[in-house]
Amino acid sequence: MLAERGCWIIVPNLGNSWMNDQAVAALDKIIDQMCKSETIDPARVHLIGTSMGAGSGLIYVSLRPKKIRSVCALFPMTDFNTWMKETPRFAPSIIQAYGSDPTKVTPVLDSRSPIWNAEAFRNVPVYLLHGDNDNIVPPHHSRDFAVALRAKRCDVTYHEVPGFGHDDQIAEAFQREIADFLTKETRLKNTTKR
């Protein structure tokens, strides 16, 4: 649907970087190179991601809000330190991505977690989609982030979908709405649907 609307779709492989400094630099380079080589308007770059890609994409936007026009995040983690406690099996990967010293990783993750950087999204519309039965990334991550964004008067659309867990198929019923959001054909402001 996005390709039919003239969008380039780039899927970078950033590994288990969790949007650390190397991943931020790599994504900067990819975006800059695509804009240059394909004459893409740099003011029309959007991000979409699921799970780690969604949480990492939100980190990227909070660090580079002027580079991204809008972001769509499906079941993202938005408070990384809380999430590591909730789902500890991912903690070693995150800690390794950020330097292998847990005592130094905690403040870095606080500084990068989207929930604590809502003001960075003031000019970047956000679309959040989360299943209410997600046991990998609990739905409060999207729910709390939507509240934080609204408190900063940011443009956010949030859908919490009954009966869905941590599954990409959650997006099937929302494909057109997501495509419209990313291509700005329609945009709902400050909505919540559960």
What is the strand and helix layout of this fold?
Elements: H1 21-37, E1 46-50, H2 52-63, E2 70-74, H3 80-86, H4 91-97, H5 102-112, E3 126-131, H6 140-151, E4 156-161, H7 175-183, E5 191-193
Parallel strand pairs: 1-2, 2-3, 3-4, 4-5
What this model shows, in words?
This protein is an alpha/beta fold and 194 residues long. It has one domain (3-126, 174-187). Helices cover 39% and strands 13% of the residues. It has seven helices and five strands. It has helices at 21-37, 52-63, 80-86, 91-97, 102-112, 140-151, 175-183, and strands at 46-50, 70-74, 126-131, 156-161, 191-193. A five-stranded parallel beta sheet has the order 1-2-3-4-5, with helices on both faces. Strand 3, helix 6 and strand 4 (156-161) form a beta-alpha-beta unit. The longest helix is centred in the N-terminal third of the chain and has 17 residues, at 21-37. The protein is globular and about 45 Å long. The two termini are 25 Å apart. Mean pLDDT is 92; it is low at 185-194.
